Amino acid sequence: MATTSYDMSAKLQKPRVSRHGKQMHLNYECPHRLNITKVYPLQSPRGADIIISGYDDGLHILWRGGRPLSTASRTVTERVNDLSGTRTQHTEWNHPISIHKSPVTEDIPDKDKPRYEAEDEELDEDEPYPSFAQELKLSFGSPVLHLALPNIPQPSTTLQSRAQLPLLVKQRIVLAVACADASLRLITLPLTPPSASAKRNGRLGAQICDLSPSSSSSAMARDVALTWTNSSSLPAAEDQMDLDKPQQEASSANHEKLDLLVASSTSAHLETLTFYRIPIAFNDLTGGKIPNSVNPFHAVPLSSSSQCLRFSTAQYPSRQHSRLLIADVKGTLKIYDPLATKGRPSSRGTDASAEPGAWISAFNTAFQMPKGATSNYPGLAQRRKIVDVAWVSGAKAALVLLDRGEWGVWDIEAVTQKKMNTFAIQGFIGSADAAPSDLKNRSTQGLAPSTPNTRQQRQESLFGAPKPAAPATTSPRGGVCAVATAGSHGSLDDSVVLWYGSEAYHISSLASLWQRSLNSSGKDIGSLYGPGLSHIEGLDLSGEILNGITQFPTRSTALNLGALSQRDFAVTGEYRLVIIQSMRPQTPAKSLFTQATAGAGNGSSIFDQQLLDRGELDLGGMDRLLDGMGTRTNGFAPAVTKKRVGFAG
């Protein structure tokens, strides 16, 4: 987009709504350029989703859904404009609030605290999507380029039951931002949206910590990561870090003092990885206080420029909670722990003054020839570039996205020296023309089983319009967003979104996809059906570049459905925010299969109906639904004879 001037106080207008299958796309046009957008892993106390965007002057925070704010906290003029529909886009309370000129760090007075309506928002049948309860713009005077949120597990996962979360993280928004002016900040805000009067007065109850304010370096951060850790001495803390300790000991340790841990990478004269520890002073009312500024406590040089940083999703007190994934531009993925000691101490008498930090392991991508080059010049071969990376499987594996759309999973825990750089599972997204030759060969070596996923992909390739090949660029654009979910029998699973170029795909259950790939030899007893790699259809950014996709946290009613939980996504363009929302019926479904299975005593019928709604129901599930129709006394069809379709072994 060539537009450079816009109204700083403009609000998001009503979206352009389109429907694609079981999904609704809400297309919002933003008044400013979006650099990065993420959804906070926790909802507000009143059930609102929190969308945080970095734009070219600071942060833009949206509270979506939940219980709406009471109109009593607004002025009479604003309430009249709301009722008449004549609210202008130039109201004073929606102007960006400068962190340098406004008292944003002062506590919110009681008279300015938010008040809510008595009931939740009632959705209109013509517009069945939640509105934005509030929005807040913080002005830093510089574009926010990178944004890091803490890895807070969902309540349904075993990680949540074992993790020890700081009170500050439970009660407030905590994030780290890196700006174009080389500034790095840690910011906390209340989870509740501010009232209109609080925005007008500029008192938001925020806490801002400048990281390394005395640094004279003018290099921008390449990326930033955020987590939390123990405040005690490192060797003693390492001996006590264990997720397997009894629940009584874990509960007694809830009063431990915790610090926030931030990592950033810069490249002024030498690529450097810098770590900051931000102490949290206990405060019952605000959840904790952080200092105004902090200097780095540890730094380590890097041999090449880093591409992205990701702290482990295994939270404290796990031993792996401080491990950091570092993907560099040369195709190497390294794991570094800033709190680990160099070498396992043999006794408690080990020198505690030794500088912490140790490299854990490293993985390398395969070599490839540049486009247009022949194998006669092996010296031109380069390792495949890593576009993005994410922890999966409870921080026991790493999923990487490579250039040309290839993706794979490195099993960190089960890796051997001989298979150090071999993917445990891999695939490809994007256009077929850009696929590596070895992936094309592997895809044609055997007969693919006719599953609902493969049938849908084959139908798209036969009857769909041909997709133009993505132009070759020196810097491939793509990303990975992985969210830990509850798997079967209390195990961990992951919901993963992959995007490359202008294409996006969703893996609702990485564990199921991984298991089916391991059992593809024919000796398995597992099902070939189930959640696979599904294409996110209908992305319309009006010609803008795709900047990222993130996932909303699942509602409490869907937490126990695991891979069958319907996920909502937030898609970021340059000046556009698209929310992909699953169409949830407000009244009981009237479909034939739903009525036929409503009175069935089989609990699996619920999951069969979920699969049917998503278009992923297999032949066995169809048989069960038809059997349920035939066995009902007031059924809609006579009993049918079971037909089994199998594959030749």
UniProtKB/TrEMBL annotation:
It comes from the Eukaryota. Residues 465-476 have a biased composition (Low complexity). Residues 118-128 have a biased composition (Acidic residues). Residues 108-117 have a biased composition (Basic and acidic residues). Residues 1-21, 101-128, 436-477 are annotated as: Disordered. Residues 442-460 have a biased composition (Polar residues). This is WD40 repeat-like protein. The lineage of its organism: Eukaryota, Fungi, Dikarya, Ascomycota, Pezizomycotina.
